[in-house]
Each structure stands twice: as C-alpha cells, then as structure tokens.
C-alpha cells in the first residue's frame, strides 16, 4: 500500500474537497441507517478517521474536543471508482506529489510515521476482512473504519426478489460482541549478546543486500510468553540457547499489523554454537564484536532499498537505520545495556 508523499520525507495532507466526488459524505447518515440500508454491491473507497490534531484552532468541534480531523483514504482503483481514482491520481501527481514505492517509510519524521502506521494498519485490516468469520457473508465497515459488522440484511439480494434481503442468522448478531475489531499480531525482535557480553549475534536473509545483517525476529505462538518466544525463535533460527531475556522497547510495524516487542537476550556459556539447521529462514548468522558493531552503527546504516551512506567501506557490516527498532536494540547493546562481563 503506497503512501502519498510530498518530497521524500513528508506526508501529503490534502483537503476533503479533493476527494468529495469519489467518497461523497461518508458521515451524512447515521450508522444504524447505513447498516439498515447495507448493499454489498455498492462500493466506496475505504475511509478511516485517524483522530484530531488538537493543536489546530481552525478545526472541528465535537463535545469537549476540537482540532483538525485527519482521515486516511484508500485510492486504489477498484470496481465502480476505477476511472475516478485513476483520474485523481494523475491530478495529484501533476501537482508534484507522488506515491512512495518503498515498503518501509523509515525516512518520515516520528509524527508522520505514526500517522502512516495507523492509517496503513487500519486500511489493511479492513481490506483483509471483507467477510464475516462466522457466516461468510460480506461485512460492513463501521465506527469510522475501526470496526466491521455483519448486517442482518443485504439489499443486494433484493434485485430480483424483494423478499430476499434478510440474511440467515449469524452468531455475531446474537450477543454484545457483534462486531469485528482490528487485530494486532505480536512479534518479538531481539538483540542477542554472548555470555561474556563482548559480542552480538546478527543474521541475514538471502534477499538482503550484501553485508546487510540485523537482529533476529519472529511471531509469538499461542499461549507463549514474550520471553519464551524470544528463546524459541533464537534457537530455531540460529541454534543459540539463551538465559535471561529482558524486554527493552516496542514499535508498531503495520506490515500489515505487527507490534514489534524488542528484547535483549544473553546466551548461556555452553549455548553459543551457531546452527542454522533448525529453520531455513536465515541465510547466515554470525557473532560480531562490539567494535565492529559500533563502526557499523556509525557508518553502515540504511534501509533495505537504499544505498550505503557516505563513509561506508565496501565489505564492512551494514545495518538497519536508526528509525528501526532493530537499530535501537543494537545501539543499546553498543552503549552498554549489558555490562561488560556481567549477566543481565
């Protein structure tokens, strides 16, 4: 899902008037009326309400809240709005705006990155959940894009027979839990240090650029604690056995709906032998000294699709940029998060 940007590091913020002809007024009717008049054959681009910027004095007022409202809109040309969306995209690009081709918007300022993360997460979730998990019928986006419901009737069925609007009973309509909510998939990402705290373990995937390494990562499994997931993933991917694990920090990662839980783990003395035979995910894994790590953090950081920075010497270690939680974990280790020669 590409982001509309201005220049290379700024989100393009546009007025409602640019999109009115495509989305109409999504809040003209009450939500109950929208549910009662649901027609699964009607299509409008997904709109998400992201919140109010309360620093703005010229925005809207709702009860005790005021500020400029922010929305996210999916302009992907689909169904009945293909031509309208394509025409709008051409217009926006003629103004000097562009849709970023990068998968990871790591060059955005923190505030813009947070807006983009929320928008992408919510648009992805709505796009991936068009049907009810209980009955299989099409669902409806409600609560300004933050919930989906399975309406009791669908006017699409009345095209040839007015009596066919009612749907079959669905369990989601029988209790208070009659809505589907966005999901977040917890993921662990961990910096692994040696038992003497003098080295860090880094791995690489085959698709990454030469010399580019990072910390290990993986999904939590059901009924598993964060610490257990860190130990399991590290052993599966590298064969390294960990002792103590400490949670360091977290970062939302909307690709499509992850929360990255950053941790630092320390290997046990007799568990430092690398073995990639348990899981084929990594192409390579190595132990690096802290001096090599610090040099790479200073001269070798960049995004996956970016060139190495000035000062980088070919053949040296390359790492993710400072906006990635992997970099933050490695920086913490390089700065002494694990005391030299001490156990965490």
UniProtKB/TrEMBL annotation:
Pfam families documented for this protein: NUDIX, NUDIX-like
Enzyme class, UniProt record, top EC level: hydrolase
PROSITE patterns assigned: NUDIX, NUDIX_BOX
Keywords assigned by UniProt, alphabetized: Hydrolase, Magnesium, Metal-binding, NAD
Record GO biological process: NAD+ catabolic process; NADP+ catabolic process
Gene Ontology CC: cytosol; peroxisome
GO molecular function: metal ion binding; NADH pyrophosphatase activity
Residues of the Nudix hydrolase domain: 182-310
Cofactor names: Zn(2+); Mg(2+)
Transmembrane segments annotated in the record for this chain: none
Catalytic activity: a 5'-end NAD(+)-phospho-ribonucleoside in mRNA + H2O = a 5'-end phospho-adenosine-phospho-ribonucleoside in mRNA + beta-nicotinamide D-ribonucleotide + 2 H(+)
Coiled coil spans: none
Enzyme nomenclature, EC number: 3.6.1.22
Family: Belongs to the Nudix hydrolase family. NudC subfamily.
Protein name (record): NAD(+) diphosphatase
Source organism of this protein record: Pseudovirgaria hyperparasitica
């Amino acid at each position: 899902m590409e982001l509309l940007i201005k220049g290379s590091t700024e989100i393009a913020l546009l007025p409602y008037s640019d999109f009115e002809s495509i989305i109409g007024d999504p809040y003209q009717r009450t939500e109950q009326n929208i549910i009662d008049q649901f027609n699964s054959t009607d299509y409008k681009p997904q709109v998400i309400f992201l919140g109010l910027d309360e620093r703005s004095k010229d925005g809207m007022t709702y009860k005790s809240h005021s500020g400029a409202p922010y929305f996210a809109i999916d302009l992907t040309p689909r169904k009945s709005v293909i031509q309208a969306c394509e025409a709008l995209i051409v217009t926006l690009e003629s103004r000097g705006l562009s849709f970023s081709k990068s998968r990871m918007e790591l060059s955005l300022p923190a505030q813009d990155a947070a807006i983009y993360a929320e928008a992408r997460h919510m648009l992805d979730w709505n796009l991936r959940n068009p049907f009810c998990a209980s009955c299989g019928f099409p669902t409806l986006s409600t609560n300004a894009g933050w919930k989906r419901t399975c309406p009791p009737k669908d006017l699409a069925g009345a095209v040839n027979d007015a009596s066919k609007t009612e749907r079959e009973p669905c369990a989601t309509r029988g209790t208070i839990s009659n809505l589907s909510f966005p999901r977040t998939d917890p993921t662990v990402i961990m910096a692994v240090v040696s038992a003497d705290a003098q080295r860090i373990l880094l791995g690489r995937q085959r698709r990454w650029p030469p010399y580019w390494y990072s910390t290990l990562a993986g999904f939590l499994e059901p009924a598993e604690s964060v610490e257990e997931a860190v130990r399991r993933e590290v052993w599966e991917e590298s064969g390294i056995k960990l002792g103590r694990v400490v949670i360091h920090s977290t970062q939302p990662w909307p690709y499509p709906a992850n929360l990255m839980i950053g941790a630092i783990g320390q290997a046990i003395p007799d568990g430092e032998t690398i073995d990639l035979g348990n899981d084929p995910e990594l192409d390579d894994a190595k132990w690096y000294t802290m001096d090599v790590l610090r040099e790479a953090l200073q001269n070798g950081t960049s995004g996956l699709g970016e060139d190495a920075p000035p000062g980088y010497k070919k053949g040296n270690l390359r790492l993710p940029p400072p906006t990635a939680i992997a970099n933050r974990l490695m920086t913490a280790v390089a700065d002494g998060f694990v005391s030299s020669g001490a156990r965490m």
